[in-house]
Amino acid sequence: MSGVWCTVGSTKGWSEVIDPSKPTWSFSTARRWVFRGAVYLTLGVVSCVLVTWWMSLVRPWSELMPNVFGRTTYLGMRSFWGAGALHEYSEMSVDIATTPVRDVVYVGVGVLRHETVEAMREGATPQSDEDFEQKFRGKLQRAAAESSILARALPDVPIVRTPDGRLRVVQATYWGWPMRCLSAVWIVRVADSTGFNRKTVLGGWLAFENSFGYPRFILPYSPVWPGLIVNTLLYTAAIGRSLSR
């Protein structure tokens, strides 16, 4: 007996004949599901990036920059320490600002301790960039223990002295919903040879500049992998559910 044939009927009058010897799952069916999943996943990634870029236009990289509608909404920043508050190390400030779709971490670094006017008058002991870097990192790490946002930004803060000058300002901005998934870093350095400020954007495309040479908008492309994976999966599931109806 090669197989058992059975008929499945219903009260509506239709019937279907099932042959157990023939598999119900074929290679073409599997290939179709894989192709469909790949399409949904691609749409999920594209949607995640486009939505995040829209957030970067509505909530720009800086609290002080007007958005795409020309409005500036300053929500305030939480300060861990202000400029000049720690004169024994240097003039510096670390602040964070959060919204439902964006986190901003601002790190400002002034002159070294022995370079201040007061220190020069008092004959302070010269402080190397390496000494300041060590103390500065220690302060950041202690503050990061109080803030997960600052802890996430800590690896993005470069060293005080870089090949093209000494660090002055670092602002790391993270966008995404429900999790932060893309980021960009704006850096201002004092060039050693010229003494002028040099501005750099890392992990993002500079969309526009204002009259002062500051970015108006930054489109981020540096991934925050945990958030990018979670957001992509959520967007993919939503797209797949809506298209399969």
Question: Summarize this, please?
Answer:
This protein is of the alpha+beta class. The protein is 32% helix and 30% strand.
Topology:
Blueprint: E1 6-9, E2 15-18, H1 27-58, E3 78-81, E4 90-98, E5 102-112, H2 117-122, H3 129-144, H4 148-153, E6 161-162, E7 165-175, E8 182-190, E9 197-202, E10 204-209, E11 215-220, E12 222-223, H5 225-243
Antiparallel strand pairs: 1-2, 3-4, 4-5, 5-7, 6-7, 7-8, 8-9, 8-12, 10-11
Helix pairs in contact: 1-5
Structural notes for this entry:
The structure is a single chain. This protein is α+β, with helices and mostly antiparallel strands and 245 residues long. It is built from five helices and twelve strands. It has helices at residues 27-58, 117-122, 129-144, 148-153, 225-243; strands at 6-9, 15-18, 78-81, 90-98, 102-112, 161-162, 165-175, 182-190, 197-202, 204-209, 215-220, 222-223. A hairpin with a 2-residue loop joins strand 6 and strand 7. The protein is elongated and about 85 Å long.
What key phrases describe this protein's structure?
12 strands, two-stranded antiparallel ribbon, 245 residues, 5 helices, alpha+beta, disordered N terminus, 32% helix
Overall geometry comes to elongated
- Secondary-structure element order, as H and E? EEHEEEHHHEEEEEEEH
**How many E-type strands?**
12
Radius of gyration based on Cα positions: 28 Å
Which regions have little confidence, pLDDT < 50, spanning 5+ residues?
A: 1-15, 83-89
Largest sheet: 8 strands, antiparallel
Helices and strands: which structural class? alpha+beta
Overall average pLDDT: 78
Strand content: 25-35%
Query: Distance between the terminal alpha carbons, to the nearest Å?
Result: 42 Å
Give the helix tally.
5
Q: Which percent range fits the helix content?
A: 25-40%
